[in-house]
Design brief:
The structure is a single chain. This protein is of the alpha/beta class. It folds into two domains: 2-146 and 323-361, Nucleotidyltransferase, domain 5; 157-318, ATPase, nucleotide binding domain (Nucleotidyltransferase, domain 5). It has 13 helices and 13 strands. The chain has helices at residues 41-52, 62-82, 117-124, 134-138, 148-154, 191-202, 211-214, 220-227, 230-233, 246-251, 259-278, 298-307, 325-339, and strands at residues 2-8, 15-23, 28-38, 88-91, 94-99, 110-114, 127-130, 162-167, 170-176, 182-189, 288-291, 312-314, 359-361. Strand 9 and strand 10 (182-189) form a beta hairpin. Helix 1 crosses helix 2 (62-82), helix 2 (62-82) packs parallel to helix 3 (117-124) and helix 11 crosses helix 12 (298-307). It starts with a strand and ends with a strand.
Length: 365
């Protein structure tokens, strides 16, 4: 078993999660402490600015270099906050642009996560596994989601079929069948547009307790235009960039809504996206387990309950830590890189076959 610390900085741009566990990449022997370190407002603004102009960035852009250094230093602080030695750190970095193969999309597929693995290894004194997605994208996969193989291990004792929904900036779902089958893909926008809306209209980083959305009414016309987006009908494999729906939201007229009605409409749209995703499952799940920050939003959980016919519950009902799952996943994925085990599969990213990936810097080389 390897002692690993998994790190995750998601599309919500709110901070870095770190989680300790002991694993061989297939089974999990022990969970340990976890930490969440928020980003300061300056780093958060810098990361959002990089997203907004990612397509024109060059690797030597001063703002990019500064943000990469600050991001990596914060990740090192998260490792140090765990307070336990480890053999390996699973370092996802921060996605700033994601352009896998898709119908109608031209150009070479690629995915871009920033973060300095060498600096992290020097700062922590530990080996670092990184670059988890690029091999899959180069082989024609979507490069996302990568967490399903972790979900399968975690959910081994639970009744199937089962759906595990993560609501970060973008939503993604893992469907697990009774015989080990995995189907996974991004469902659509989740907290990302809602956080942006709250910041724009209230000055807050997110809609705390869903109060803004609960005070409004979803606009049927705007919601109808959003529901016509071709992504929702497209079959998996499929994945999204954090800003893929920004143009659709503008063109649908969301900007004309009141603060409360806009929030309610975005919440309703997230739920509709999840319901649309469920139509691609081989059979309905017995229950939905919800992870990510979205599970703490009562408006969003209520909307999901209305859109889905199956029970919808936070992952804590299964004894899992919903704030740590993605960080824990990258601890497991780091161990899989070290052991040469596949990270992605035809049912998860659309890879042509189970594919290994990732790189390691440090003593485990």
């Amino acid at each position: 078993m390897l002692r690993t610390i998994g790190l995750m900085s998601g599309t919500s741009l709110d901070g870095v999660d770190a989680a300790y566990l002991e694993t061989d990449g297939e089974a999990i022997a022990r969970f340990g402490p976890r930490q969440t370190l928020p980003y300061d407002p300056a780093l958060r603004r810098a990361l959002r600015a990089l997203l907004d102009r990612a397509e024109s960035l060059t690797p030597d852009d001063p703002a990019l270099l500064d943000a990469t250094r600050s991001l990596t230093e914060r990740h090192a602080e998260a490792v140090e906050a765990i307070g336990l030695p480890a053999d390996l750190v699973g370092f996802h970095g921060q996605t700033i642009l994601h352009r896998p193969a898709a119908p109608g999309r031209t150009g070479t597929p690629f995915t871009w996560q920033i973060g300095d693995a060498a600096l992290l290894a020097r700062r922590t004194g530990m080996s670092v596994a990184y670059d988890f997605r690029s091999a899959d994208v180069a082989a024609g996969g979507q490069g996302a989601p990568l967490v399903p193989v972790f979900h399968r291990a975690l959910a081994a004792p639970l009744p199937k079929p089962l759906a595990i929904l993560n609501l970060g900036g973008v939503g993604n779902v893992t469907w697990l069948g009774p015989d080990g089958e995995m189907l996974a893909f991004d469902t659509g926008p989740a907290n990302g547009p809602l956080d942006d809306w709250a910041r724009q209209h209230t000055g807050k980083d997110y809609d705390a307790a869903g109060k803004l959305a609960l005070a409004g009414q979803a606009d049927g016309a705007v919601l109808g235009r959003l529901m016509a987006h071709p992504y929702l009908a497209a079959p998996p494999p499929k994945s999204l960039d954090r800003l893929d729906f920004d143009r659709a939201l503008r063109e649908a007229g969301a900007g004309s809504l009141s603060a409360a009605d806009g929030a309610a409409t975005l919440v309703a749209f997230c739920a509709v996206c999840v319901a649309a995703a469920a139509r691609h499952f081989p059979e309905p799940p017995m229950q939905w387990l919800v992870a990510g920050g979205g599970r703490r939003n009562p408006a969003l959980m209520k909307a999901l309950g209305g859109a889905l016919e199956e029970p919808v519950r936070p992952v804590e009902v299964a004894g899992w830590d919903g704030d740590a799952l993605e960080a824990q996943a990258f601890g497991v994925l780091g161990a899989r890189v070290a052991r040469g085990l596949p990270l992605s599969f035809p049912g998860t990213t659309g890879a042509p076959r189970p594919l290994t990936g990732g790189r390691i810097i440090g003593a485990l080389l």
